[in-house]
Protein backbone atom coordinates (compact mmCIF):
# COMPACT_ATOMS: atom_id res chain seq x y z
CA UNK A 1 0.00 0.00 0.00
CA UNK A 2 1.43 3.40 -1.03
CA UNK A 3 2.40 5.64 1.89
CA UNK A 4 0.10 8.67 1.73
CA UNK A 5 -2.75 10.11 3.76
CA UNK A 6 -6.15 11.61 3.08
CA UNK A 7 -4.53 15.00 3.68
CA UNK A 8 -2.04 14.25 0.88
CA UNK A 9 -4.95 13.56 -1.49
CA UNK A 10 -6.56 16.86 -0.43
CA UNK A 11 -3.28 18.74 -0.94
CA UNK A 12 -2.77 17.26 -4.40
CA UNK A 13 -6.33 18.11 -5.32
CA UNK A 14 -5.80 21.74 -4.24
CA UNK A 15 -2.53 21.91 -6.17
CA UNK A 16 -3.87 20.54 -9.44
CA UNK A 17 -7.64 21.06 -9.33
CA UNK A 18 -8.11 17.41 -10.33
CA UNK A 19 -10.78 15.08 -8.98
CA UNK A 20 -10.25 13.21 -5.72
CA UNK A 21 -10.17 9.75 -7.33
CA UNK A 22 -7.68 10.93 -9.97
CA UNK A 23 -5.45 12.32 -7.20
CA UNK A 24 -5.69 9.09 -5.21
CA UNK A 25 -4.76 7.01 -8.27
CA UNK A 26 -1.82 9.31 -9.05
CA UNK A 27 -0.46 9.10 -5.49
CA UNK A 28 -0.82 5.33 -5.52
CA UNK A 29 1.05 5.09 -8.82
CA UNK A 30 3.70 7.53 -7.54
CA UNK A 31 4.12 5.55 -4.30
CA UNK A 32 3.12 8.59 -2.26
CA UNK A 33 5.46 11.09 -3.95
CA UNK A 34 3.65 14.43 -4.33
CA UNK A 35 5.98 15.69 -7.08
CA UNK A 36 5.69 12.47 -9.06
CA UNK A 37 1.89 12.48 -8.66
CA UNK A 38 1.69 16.03 -10.04
CA UNK A 39 3.90 14.96 -12.94
CA UNK A 40 1.67 11.94 -13.66
CA UNK A 41 -1.47 14.09 -13.66
CA UNK A 42 0.19 16.55 -16.01
CA UNK A 43 1.30 13.73 -18.33
CA UNK A 44 -2.29 12.53 -18.52
CA UNK A 45 -3.49 16.06 -19.24
CA UNK A 46 -5.65 16.12 -16.12
CA UNK A 47 -3.93 19.00 -14.36
CA UNK A 48 -4.29 21.23 -17.43
CA UNK A 49 -7.92 20.31 -17.96
CA UNK A 50 -8.87 20.96 -14.33
CA UNK A 51 -8.39 24.70 -14.78
CA UNK A 52 -11.03 24.66 -17.50
CA UNK A 53 -13.46 22.27 -15.82
CA UNK A 54 -15.66 25.01 -14.34
CA UNK A 55 -16.40 26.60 -17.68
CA UNK A 56 -19.78 25.99 -19.28
CA UNK A 57 -19.57 23.56 -22.19
CA UNK A 58 -22.95 23.70 -23.96
CA UNK A 59 -21.90 23.84 -27.61
CA UNK A 60 -20.34 20.90 -29.44
CA UNK A 61 -21.82 18.25 -31.70
CA UNK A 62 -23.72 15.00 -31.98
CA UNK A 63 -22.22 12.11 -33.95
CA UNK A 64 -23.41 8.64 -34.95
CA UNK A 65 -21.44 5.47 -35.72
CA UNK A 66 -22.92 2.52 -37.62
CA UNK A 67 -21.00 -0.75 -37.98
CA UNK A 68 -20.29 -1.98 -41.50
CA UNK A 69 -22.63 -4.94 -41.03
CA UNK A 70 -25.39 -2.60 -39.74
CA UNK A 71 -25.79 -4.66 -36.56
CA UNK A 72 -24.61 -1.99 -34.11
CA UNK A 73 -25.17 1.75 -33.92
CA UNK A 74 -24.24 4.40 -31.38
CA UNK A 75 -25.02 8.09 -30.93
CA UNK A 76 -23.05 10.49 -28.71
CA UNK A 77 -23.12 14.13 -27.67
CA UNK A 78 -19.78 15.78 -26.91
CA UNK A 79 -19.82 19.37 -25.68
CA UNK A 80 -17.39 22.25 -26.08
CA UNK A 81 -17.49 25.85 -24.87
CA UNK A 82 -17.80 27.49 -28.28
CA UNK A 83 -19.18 26.65 -31.69
CA UNK A 84 -15.76 27.61 -33.14
CA UNK A 85 -14.25 24.52 -31.56
CA UNK A 86 -17.30 22.47 -32.61
CA UNK A 87 -16.35 23.21 -36.23
CA UNK A 88 -12.68 22.32 -35.69
CA UNK A 89 -11.64 19.13 -37.52
CA UNK A 90 -9.51 17.91 -34.59
CA UNK A 91 -12.57 18.10 -32.35
CA UNK A 92 -14.81 16.47 -34.97
CA UNK A 93 -12.36 13.59 -35.42
CA UNK A 94 -12.29 13.13 -31.64
CA UNK A 95 -16.11 13.01 -31.45
CA UNK A 96 -16.17 10.43 -34.25
CA UNK A 97 -13.74 8.30 -32.20
CA UNK A 98 -16.01 8.66 -29.13
CA UNK A 99 -18.99 7.47 -31.21
CA UNK A 100 -17.02 4.41 -32.34
CA UNK A 101 -15.99 3.72 -28.74
CA UNK A 102 -19.66 3.94 -27.71
CA UNK A 103 -20.55 1.33 -30.34
CA UNK A 104 -18.13 -1.11 -28.71
CA UNK A 105 -18.80 -0.28 -25.06
CA UNK A 106 -20.27 -2.58 -22.44
CA UNK A 107 -20.92 0.38 -20.12
CA UNK A 108 -24.46 1.03 -18.95
CA UNK A 109 -23.87 4.65 -17.87
CA UNK A 110 -21.45 7.55 -18.25
CA UNK A 111 -19.43 6.75 -15.11
CA UNK A 112 -18.62 3.27 -16.39
CA UNK A 113 -17.95 4.62 -19.88
CA UNK A 114 -15.40 7.14 -18.56
CA UNK A 115 -13.53 4.36 -16.72
CA UNK A 116 -13.14 2.18 -19.83
CA UNK A 117 -9.84 1.93 -21.65
CA UNK A 118 -9.62 4.40 -24.55
CA UNK A 119 -9.64 2.25 -27.71
CA UNK A 120 -7.14 4.44 -29.57
CA UNK A 121 -4.62 4.30 -26.71
CA UNK A 122 -5.48 1.70 -24.01
CA UNK A 123 -2.90 3.01 -21.55
CA UNK A 124 -5.46 5.77 -20.84
CA UNK A 125 -9.11 5.67 -19.80
CA UNK A 126 -11.83 7.46 -21.78
CA UNK A 127 -11.81 10.17 -19.10
CA UNK A 128 -8.04 10.62 -19.31
CA UNK A 129 -8.18 10.79 -23.12
CA UNK A 130 -10.87 13.47 -22.81
CA UNK A 131 -8.63 15.48 -20.49
CA UNK A 132 -5.82 15.28 -23.03
CA UNK A 133 -8.17 16.71 -25.68
CA UNK A 134 -9.00 19.57 -23.31
CA UNK A 135 -5.28 20.34 -23.08
CA UNK A 136 -4.85 20.15 -26.88
CA UNK A 137 -7.95 22.14 -27.86
CA UNK A 138 -7.83 24.66 -25.03
CA UNK A 139 -11.50 24.55 -24.01
CA UNK A 140 -13.50 22.60 -21.48
CA UNK A 141 -14.98 19.53 -23.18
CA UNK A 142 -17.41 16.92 -21.94
CA UNK A 143 -18.84 13.65 -23.20
CA UNK A 144 -22.39 14.26 -22.07
CA UNK A 145 -24.30 11.15 -23.13
CA UNK A 146 -24.41 8.15 -25.44
CA UNK A 147 -26.83 5.44 -26.50
CA UNK A 148 -26.02 2.14 -28.16
CA UNK A 149 -28.35 0.00 -30.30
CA UNK A 150 -27.74 -3.65 -31.15
CA UNK A 151 -30.08 -5.25 -33.65
CA UNK A 152 -31.92 -8.29 -32.33
CA UNK A 153 -34.09 -8.88 -35.41
CA UNK A 154 -34.13 -8.30 -39.16
CA UNK A 155 -34.32 -4.68 -40.27
CA UNK A 156 -32.10 -1.61 -40.52
CA UNK A 157 -30.33 0.85 -38.27
CA UNK A 158 -30.39 4.28 -39.91
CA UNK A 159 -28.95 7.61 -38.79
CA UNK A 160 -29.38 11.26 -39.69
CA UNK A 161 -27.27 14.26 -38.70
CA UNK A 162 -28.68 17.76 -39.07
CA UNK A 163 -26.88 21.10 -39.10
CA UNK A 164 -23.36 19.68 -39.05
CA UNK A 165 -23.99 17.87 -35.78
CA UNK A 166 -26.46 20.15 -33.99
CA UNK A 167 -29.08 17.37 -33.98
CA UNK A 168 -28.60 13.64 -34.46
CA UNK A 169 -31.09 10.78 -34.74
CA UNK A 170 -30.57 7.02 -34.62
CA UNK A 171 -33.56 4.88 -35.59
CA UNK A 172 -34.19 1.13 -35.75
CA UNK A 173 -36.64 -0.31 -38.27
CA UNK A 174 -37.85 -3.92 -38.06
CA UNK A 175 -38.61 -5.69 -41.36
CA UNK A 176 -38.11 -9.25 -42.57
CA UNK A 177 -36.94 -7.95 -45.95
CA UNK A 178 -33.79 -5.86 -45.38
CA UNK A 179 -34.29 -4.04 -48.68
CA UNK A 180 -32.37 -0.87 -49.56
CA UNK A 181 -35.68 1.03 -49.53
CA UNK A 182 -35.49 0.85 -45.73
CA UNK A 183 -32.46 3.16 -45.72
CA UNK A 184 -34.30 5.97 -47.51
CA UNK A 185 -37.36 5.39 -45.35
CA UNK A 186 -35.23 5.54 -42.20
CA UNK A 187 -33.50 8.76 -43.33
CA UNK A 188 -36.83 10.43 -44.07
CA UNK A 189 -38.37 9.43 -40.75
CA UNK A 190 -35.20 10.46 -38.90
CA UNK A 191 -35.45 13.88 -40.57
CA UNK A 192 -39.05 14.06 -39.32
CA UNK A 193 -37.89 13.23 -35.79
CA UNK A 194 -35.11 15.85 -35.98
CA UNK A 195 -37.56 18.53 -37.11
CA UNK A 196 -40.64 17.82 -34.97
CA UNK A 197 -39.17 16.00 -31.94
CA UNK A 198 -42.07 13.60 -31.22
CA UNK A 199 -42.28 12.19 -27.70
CA UNK A 200 -43.64 8.73 -28.59
CA UNK A 201 -43.83 6.34 -31.57
CA UNK A 202 -47.54 5.41 -31.32
CA UNK A 203 -50.46 6.24 -29.02
CA UNK A 204 -49.99 2.82 -27.41
CA UNK A 205 -46.60 4.04 -26.13
CA UNK A 206 -48.08 7.01 -24.24
CA UNK A 207 -47.97 6.36 -20.46
CA UNK A 208 -51.21 6.69 -18.49
CA UNK A 209 -49.68 9.29 -16.16
CA UNK A 210 -48.77 11.47 -19.17
CA UNK A 211 -52.37 11.36 -20.42
CA UNK A 212 -53.65 12.11 -16.89
CA UNK A 213 -51.35 15.13 -16.56
CA UNK A 214 -52.25 16.50 -20.00
CA UNK A 215 -55.95 16.02 -19.23
CA UNK A 216 -55.50 17.94 -15.97
CA UNK A 217 -53.75 20.83 -17.75
CA UNK A 218 -56.37 20.99 -20.52
CA UNK A 219 -59.18 20.91 -17.92
CA UNK A 220 -57.73 23.90 -16.05
CA UNK A 221 -57.25 25.77 -19.34
CA UNK A 222 -60.85 25.10 -20.40
CA UNK A 223 -62.32 26.14 -17.06
CA UNK A 224 -60.24 29.33 -16.99
CA UNK A 225 -61.51 30.35 -20.43
CA UNK A 226 -64.39 32.86 -19.96
CA UNK A 227 -66.03 31.53 -23.14
CA UNK A 228 -66.64 28.21 -21.38
CA UNK A 229 -68.15 29.70 -18.18
CA UNK A 230 -71.72 28.68 -18.99
CA UNK A 231 -70.93 25.37 -20.67
CA UNK A 232 -71.97 22.19 -18.80
CA UNK A 233 -69.29 19.75 -17.59
CA UNK A 234 -70.14 17.06 -20.14
CA UNK A 235 -69.54 19.52 -23.01
CA UNK A 236 -66.23 20.62 -21.48
CA UNK A 237 -65.22 16.96 -21.11
CA UNK A 238 -65.88 16.38 -24.82
CA UNK A 239 -63.84 19.49 -25.68
CA UNK A 240 -60.95 18.22 -23.58
CA UNK A 241 -61.12 14.75 -25.17
CA UNK A 242 -60.95 16.37 -28.63
CA UNK A 243 -58.00 18.57 -27.68
CA UNK A 244 -56.17 15.62 -26.12
CA UNK A 245 -56.65 13.55 -29.27
CA UNK A 246 -55.24 16.42 -31.34
CA UNK A 247 -52.25 16.76 -28.98
CA UNK A 248 -51.50 13.05 -29.14
CA UNK A 249 -51.33 13.25 -32.93
CA UNK A 250 -48.62 15.92 -32.52
CA UNK A 251 -46.74 13.95 -29.86
CA UNK A 252 -46.88 10.54 -31.58
CA UNK A 253 -44.54 10.06 -34.53
CA UNK A 254 -46.68 7.77 -36.71
CA UNK A 255 -49.73 10.05 -36.32
CA UNK A 256 -47.90 13.19 -37.47
CA UNK A 257 -48.36 14.53 -41.01
CA UNK A 258 -45.37 13.34 -43.04
CA UNK A 259 -43.15 16.39 -43.60
CA UNK A 260 -42.38 15.59 -47.25
CA UNK A 261 -46.03 15.00 -48.13
CA UNK A 262 -48.49 16.43 -45.61
CA UNK A 263 -51.42 14.73 -47.37
CA UNK A 264 -50.37 11.51 -45.61
CA UNK A 265 -49.33 10.57 -42.09
CA UNK A 266 -45.99 8.98 -41.23
CA UNK A 267 -47.81 5.66 -40.76
CA UNK A 268 -49.30 5.89 -44.27
CA UNK A 269 -45.84 6.66 -45.65
CA UNK A 270 -44.39 3.60 -43.87
CA UNK A 271 -47.21 1.42 -45.17
CA UNK A 272 -46.59 2.63 -48.73
CA UNK A 273 -42.93 1.54 -48.51
CA UNK A 274 -43.97 -1.76 -46.88
CA UNK A 275 -46.01 -2.55 -50.01
CA UNK A 276 -42.95 -1.96 -52.18
CA UNK A 277 -40.65 -4.22 -50.12
CA UNK A 278 -43.37 -6.83 -49.61
CA UNK A 279 -43.18 -7.02 -45.82
CA UNK A 280 -44.51 -5.06 -42.80
CA UNK A 281 -42.23 -2.33 -41.42
CA UNK A 282 -42.19 -1.19 -37.80
CA UNK A 283 -40.29 1.56 -35.98
CA UNK A 284 -39.01 -0.30 -32.95
CA UNK A 285 -37.13 2.60 -31.31
CA UNK A 286 -35.32 5.86 -31.92
CA UNK A 287 -33.19 8.34 -30.04
CA UNK A 288 -32.77 12.06 -30.76
CA UNK A 289 -29.91 14.13 -29.33
CA UNK A 290 -29.77 17.91 -29.68
CA UNK A 291 -26.56 19.68 -28.72
CA UNK A 292 -26.85 21.57 -25.44
CA UNK A 293 -30.47 20.50 -24.97
CA UNK A 294 -31.65 21.53 -21.50
CA UNK A 295 -28.24 22.94 -20.56
CA UNK A 296 -27.31 26.39 -19.32
CA UNK A 297 -25.90 28.44 -22.18
CA UNK A 298 -22.83 30.59 -21.75
CA UNK A 299 -23.62 34.29 -22.08
CA UNK A 300 -20.50 35.63 -23.71
CA UNK A 301 -19.40 38.76 -25.51
CA UNK A 302 -16.92 37.78 -28.22
CA UNK A 303 -15.37 41.25 -28.43
CA UNK A 304 -14.75 41.22 -24.65
CA UNK A 305 -13.22 37.75 -24.87
CA UNK A 306 -10.79 38.91 -27.57
CA UNK A 307 -9.91 42.05 -25.58
CA UNK A 308 -9.21 39.96 -22.46
CA UNK A 309 -6.99 37.59 -24.45
CA UNK A 310 -4.95 40.52 -25.82
CA UNK A 311 -4.30 42.07 -22.39
Q: How would you sum up this structure, described in words?
A:
This protein is 47% helix and 18% strand. With 311 residues, the chain is of the alpha+beta class. It has a three-stranded antiparallel beta sheet. A hairpin with a 4-residue loop joins strand 4 (155-162) and strand 5 (167-174). Helix 1 (6-16) crosses helix 2 and helix 10 crosses helix 11 (233-251). 31% of the residues are buried. The mean pLDDT is 85.
Q: Tally the beta strands.
A: 8
Written as H for each helix and E for each strand, in order along the chain, the element string is HHHHEEHHHHEEEHHHEEHEH
Give the overall form. Answer: globular
Rg (C-alpha, Å): 25 Å
> Ranges with pLDDT <50 over ≥5 residues?
none
Structural class by SSE content: alpha+beta
Please list the strands of the largest sheet in the order they lie side by side. 1-2-3
Number of helices: 13
Spatial separation of the terminal alpha carbons: 48 Å
Q: List the quaternary state of the chains.
A: single chain
Largest β-sheet summary: 3 strands, antiparallel
- Percent in strands: 15-25%
What is the overall pLDDT average?
Answer: 85
Amino acid sequence: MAAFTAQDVKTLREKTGCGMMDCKKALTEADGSMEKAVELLREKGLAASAKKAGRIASEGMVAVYLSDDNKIGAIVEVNSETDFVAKNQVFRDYVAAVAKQASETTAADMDAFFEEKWALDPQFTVKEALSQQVAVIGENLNIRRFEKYEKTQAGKLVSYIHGGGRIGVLIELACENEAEELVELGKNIAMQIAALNPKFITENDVPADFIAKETEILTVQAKNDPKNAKKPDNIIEKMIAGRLKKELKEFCLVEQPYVKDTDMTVKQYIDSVAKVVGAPIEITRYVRFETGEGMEKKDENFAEEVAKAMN
